[in-house]
Amino acid sequence: EVQLVESGGGLVQPGGSLRLSCLVSGFTFSLFGMSWVRQAPGKGLEWVSYVDRSGGSTYADSVKGRFTIARDNARKRMYLQMNNLKPEDTAVYYCNLGNSWGQGTQVAVSG
Fold it and tell me: CB within 8 A of 98, min separation 6: which ones?
């Protein structure tokens, strides 16, 4: 069974940083690319970033230059380093593999 567990969210002031982590299990992580997806209050799902099997990455225009996705196959973790956070980054962040989703981690940018 695929399991995805996010962590690392929190409350941060504009301009601050957070590092999200997604711990995976139930499949061979090194064989799959994965995404971060977010959902802001009252809005739909928004794709944020994707990392392929080799570590190559793509980003939504809204986060390009501020967020960095990475993976550690040995630790079975995917990361999202978020710098220069803005109030519009406030959302629940999910890691995603196909039809599998984690429970999400809340990021709030305010202050």
Answer: none
